[in-house]
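Re-running the complex after MR caught last week's input typo. The corrected sequence lines follow. Everything else is unchanged.
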Amino acid sequence: MRTYKHPKTEDIDLTRVLYALSDPIRIEIVATLARQGTASCAELDAGRPKSSMSHHFRALREAGLIRTTPEGTSHINELRRADIDRRFPGLLKSILKAAESA
Amino acid sequence: MRTYKHPKTEDIDLTRVLYALSDPIRIEIVATLARQGTASCAELDAGRPKSSMSHHFRALREAGLIRTTPEGTSHINELRRADIDRRFPGLLKSILKAAESA
DNA sequence: TCGCTTGTTCGAGTATTATCGAACTATCGA
DNA sequence: TCGATAGTTCGATAATACTCGAACAAGCGA
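Corrected-run output:
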């Protein structure tokens, strides 16, 4: 069973978060997770090869935005909303709201 | 008199804004302008050569975050707070708040 | 165990960005 | 007009990230 590196809540860095969200594919992934709760990588497909998507998931993971948990053959992603809210209260909500109107 | 390109309010793009703010030097510039109101480029010096700073000012300008106005030999920068608030209500405030606690 | 599915990792090529010195532009004051 | 000041632009180099195919790893069902 594969394990992933997820930063601790207190180690989540603002500039890293902003950078991770500065990519259209990645912010769309986050927006989808915010709506749906959880989703496998396949469900979050953005029309790119799996290797490209995996790259983006890693960027989000290492920024502390999502948590990926193996579940059978698929990997479930979830938004680390509570952790991010604790680290940067209100930030995620306003970015998601901005993403809707963008 | 030199003129600068500043995007129109409705053309401000979220991912560009997030990217511009994903650099420690640039988010510090924005935080300083949020506190002080306006400042020349020289006042916002971050210990880097002028050419490097100019590069960062341009990134912020083209993202729509700051407005630069020539004033004599110096150039005054100001945060485009009202414009950004109109385009993405609440976004700037929460990012600046996050930057304080980071 | 074999084959299928899901997703990661690796490697190479490409593109974008950061950094800084040097040259340039524009403005102001003497 | 000369010199000083404030920033920009250019050009080169280095670093970083994106993209994708190919190979790999792990779990599940037959």
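None of the earlier attempt is carried over here. Chain A touches chain B through 23 residues (CB under 8 Å). The first helix of chain A runs from residue 14 to 20.
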